[in-house]
Amino acid sequence: MLVETQGIVEAPAQMSERERIIRAVIEEVRPNLKRDGGDCELVEIDGNKIMVKLAGACIFCKLASATLEGIQARMIEKLGEFVRLVPVAGAPKARH
């Protein structure tokens, strides 16, 4: 379960190793996206589907699909399993 505190979503201390890896990959790319005026946030993990929300300049960027493919490839490499990155609209929601 994620806990929202003053608009910041915090993960519980007992996060799975798989979720830690997923979050780490997203955090790896965020500085580059932010430099270009965009962002990417984890919304939900549902089995092999990982829902993310693109923000800022990433929303209308013609290269957004290539960016998502790169993030997905990195996750597959780090996890050692196939996952599918799915862009979603709307605010990140708390996972239960």
TrEMBL record:
InterPro entries with a match to the protein in the record: FSCA_dom_sf, NIF_FeS_clus_asmbl_NifU_C
- Highest taxon listed in the record's lineage: Bacteria
Q: What organism does the record attribute this protein to?
A: Bradyrhizobium aeschynomenes
Query: Per its record, how is this protein called by name?
Result: NIF system FeS cluster assembly NifU C-terminal domain-containing protein
Signal sequence region? none
Query: Which residues does the UniProt record annotate as the domain NIF system FeS cluster assembly NifU C-terminal?
Result: 22-84
